[in-house]
Amino acid sequence: MNSVQSQGTALVTGASSGIGAVYAQRLASRGFDLLLVARDQQRLDEAASKLRAEYGVQVEVVKADLTQKDDVFKLEQRLRSDSSISLLLNNAGVAADGLLGNADTDQLERMIQLNVTTVTRLASAAASSFAKAGRGTIINIASVVALFPERFNATYSASKAYVLSLTQSLNAELDGTGVKVQAVLPGVTRTEIWERSGIDASQIPAEMVMEAGEMVDAALSGLDQGELVTIPSLPDVADWDKFVAARYVMAPNLSKSKAAARYK
């Protein structure tokens, strides 16, 4: 069995551009076959041709709109039935601009469908399949706004906080199964997500914007190092460790039979 076969297949959502396209290239270079999912058939086909030619891996493309339940259901079924799939990259997502009080709530509902519901359904299918196989990797793309929601609009920040929480809980559920789980929390990354959501990224200070290739390479390094949560921009991982430790300090006191003295 050669290295390509032994890696299995990586299912990548949002694979036609930006972070997803970079992940596809990096995973192909690691010997994964690919199942690329996005809405843009032409871009998918072009990417697949290049990846096959450059890396000699098998590449299948699936045109799907992951805000549509039927399309998500088909991917779920594929994850549950295709034993060759060994990695899920939950990357597809969208941002939204503006204040919650002024928002187009139909647009917000579509964002929640993609950023929250689709991520959950695909992670559930992958967790079930991978746990049975005793192997596999689930990577969920969250955002640093999960840790600092005041810096961005309410719904996008909340959707990414959900992804972080989901990943942390899922990791606990899958303990001992052989399945690896990772949440990646990028800062501002140079992709098309900004213009699609009506945000002028040129107004963001250059020192805050990371190239997608650098972000993905850091994220994969974090995966290799066994990190549950990878924050590519964070210089000192001790800062994250302190954040986690603070939660555990509070944990024994979060549910008590009596209210705290300050409320009496």
TrEMBL record:
CDD domains: SDR_c. Keywords: Oxidoreductase. It comes from the Bacteria. Coiled coil: none annotated. The keyword Chaperone does not apply. SUPFAM superfamilies: NAD(P)-binding Rossmann-fold domains. Belongs to the short-chain dehydrogenases/reductases (SDR) family. This is SDR family oxidoreductase.
